[in-house]
């Protein structure tokens, strides 16, 4: 289903993945945790391979695996498992200091007696664990469903009155973020039209419909107007472990222009875009080259023969060009993304 | 992901109505790919290392088709086996593929349509394509448009998908095309006139009534005919009624539009975005390969959704190298742009590969030059060979320092000796094994037909020995059609017209004189 790109958009793909995994877990027969993990991995690998450039699929699988393991640990080891999150970086940033983690145990029900590999009743393990697992996957789903709200809940702290914001492309997250800020502040958005997909047109239409004063400018004028811009807000397709990101083509242009003017660059993205890959940007194909038809019409018979047109869908924006990532898990500088990834996923799942 | 298609939700609505059926005419009913198609149906020829049939399935799956009937005639067993072994026959594929073997007497698409009628498999509007289609057009949108039109006008019979391409487009066939006369408002096709490249068609006739009835007409000679037709249920029955309809365009469309009694309408769908083309001849084989490599077919590209299930890494300059680290590239070899290299292939020192497709498990010797060459699986090319604008089949052995100039077709399993210099547009196939007696008895028609072809070739082998070199098992096919007049070929299959459809044919001489 992913393979022929019927599911469009990172979040939709992630949601779809979580739903499939929920289905798989509810149907799966297993008598110990390894079997279950193997089943999820196998399905996850197939899903991720069907659409290798949609990283959110693999990320969701990793997240589900992480949650499943966590539930399993807390169910078997009780209190020892729950205290794993003590040094969470997001807590650190939010609260200023590491604190004893107390909330984790609140939702764990009365401890279930788990018996793995019970020969007399092989399904007993599955039966006992499944409700907890379903809840774990539901958590992932809930998180995905509320991701836009959570990213944009602090929008008013980032955008101030009378500021001029530049954005590019049509990221749903950025759209929600700007609209949420629009409830509190009076500010101006400049939208680059984002050739060749011209997603900026739609973004501008949507923002101005929400009552935000919006300008649509061609991509070529990004540098020229950058001196007047207070902040650049970008969406992301995937955030890599080094703090760099893949974003719609044109983002690199905007980010570099912003660097030249020392304008802060803010990236809004849900946590499911965190991708535990370090060196993806070395790969030429990672930019997801689309068909050339939006750049050069197929009817230009003579040119089609003689010109090679490349139409990369994404730009790689390096970590040095980004100032902060705003996620549903708090705000982070690029340098701590690796830490966030370590907390979100288990190390053994990086290769599905 | 790139929001190429946002019609996911609308599609669900269409799904509720009925299953979208497609019919693939997997037989080409002509011999343009001979001798590559000796012992193999054309739809199983690989293009960019996946069979044409797989590309067609992938294209249809992309368009939301759920049930496919594959009409096969020659080598039906091979086609059936290929379908059985493909990923599409797995229950998870969501596609139902039914191979249908037609009678040996099926000699044209028209015969195949009559066969479909007698099978009675078609229950609703269906999509008719050929087994050599590469497309990413949202056919379901065409189907929806067609159904809407039918609701308003029950006489809407068919919608043809065409693409604007300009007269000189590489993907547009110069040997055979058509002039479409359209009503720009309704995109109704008012008249269709077939055009062939040789002898050049200088004028077409448009019935006067058309100009009377329609204040505005568009006469288009720049369409690439994708041969994707959305047909109504009654189309097969019309073929049944008119037993002399052979070709879908030249006979059926022309016949329906010029008929005074039928009062049926045919429409065109000018695909604005999306790509669709068929591999109708070796020339379009070349151009469709190039279109795939330069990603016009996105999302059907080698590094993503490769129909053969291979994984390729996409490198700068549209180079695709198999991903499993099994390709051995010498340090000094040069890989140019628009190149695809299959897994387990070795390319040795100082070899140059430019705008070429190389299959799996090939060995390209030192100093070889490949330019616009298509090399199928398991082929070995000796040191210092030069291959240009040619197709080299599977399991071919080329000795050292062979020269294969443009337009050559070398069939599967051919061995060519050292230092051979082929002439331009040479066609080479393997000699027949001495026929065993028991085989001769139960040889079926198909083999017989093939044999008669080969016998003819064998009769013209003077001078072949010197050209092919020692240790060769090859047969040279005649350069020009020897008996054009004897065999009653229709004009478009004549040698001089076919010449325009050959790989490497020079575009400058569209008018006709020999290279």
Automatic annotation (TrEMBL), chain A:
Its main location: cytoplasm. InterPro entries: eIF2B_beta_subunit (IPR051855), IF-2B-related (IPR000649), IF_2B-like_C (IPR042529), NagB/RpiA_transferase-like (IPR037171). Keywords: Cytoplasm, Initiation factor, Protein biosynthesis. It is found in: Cytoplasm, Cytosol. GO terms for cellular component: cytosol; eukaryotic translation initiation factor 2B complex. The keyword Cytoplasm applies. Component of the translation initiation factor 2B (eIF2B) complex which is a heterodecamer of two sets of five different subunits: alpha, beta, gamma, delta and epsilon. Subunits alpha, beta and delta comprise a regulatory subcomplex and subunits epsilon and gamma comprise a catalytic subcomplex. Within the complex, the hexameric regulatory complex resides at the center, with the two heterodimeric catalytic subcomplexes bound on opposite sides. Belongs to the eIF-2B alpha/beta/delta subunits family. This is Translation initiation factor eIF2B subunit beta.
From TrEMBL, chain B:
Keywords: Cytoplasm. Residues 429-494 are annotated as: Disordered. The keyword Cell inner membrane does not apply. Belongs to the eIF-2B gamma/epsilon subunits family. It comes from Pycnoporus cinnabarinus (Cinnabar-red polypore). Residues 443-456, 482-491 have a biased composition (Acidic residues). Residues 22-157 form the Nucleotidyl transferase domain. One of its GO terms (cellular component) is eukaryotic translation initiation factor 2B complex. It is found in: Cytoplasm, Cytosol. GO terms for molecular function: guanyl-nucleotide exchange factor activity; translation initiation factor activity; translation initiation factor binding. Residues 317-422 form the EIF2B subunit epsilon/gamma LbH domain. SUPFAM superfamilies: Nucleotide-diphospho-sugar transferases. The lineage of its organism: Eukaryota, Fungi, Dikarya, Basidiomycota, Agaricomycotina. It holds the Pfam family LbH_EIF2B. Gene3D superfamilies: Hexapeptide repeat proteins, Spore Coat Polysaccharide Biosynthesis Protein SpsA, Chain A. The keyword Cytoplasm applies. This is Uncharacterized protein. Component of the translation initiation factor 2B (eIF2B) complex which is a heterodecamer of two sets of five different subunits: alpha, beta, gamma, delta and epsilon. Subunits alpha, beta and delta comprise a regulatory subcomplex and subunits epsilon and gamma comprise a catalytic subcomplex. Within the complex, the hexameric regulatory complex resides at the center, with the two heterodimeric catalytic subcomplexes bound on opposite sides.
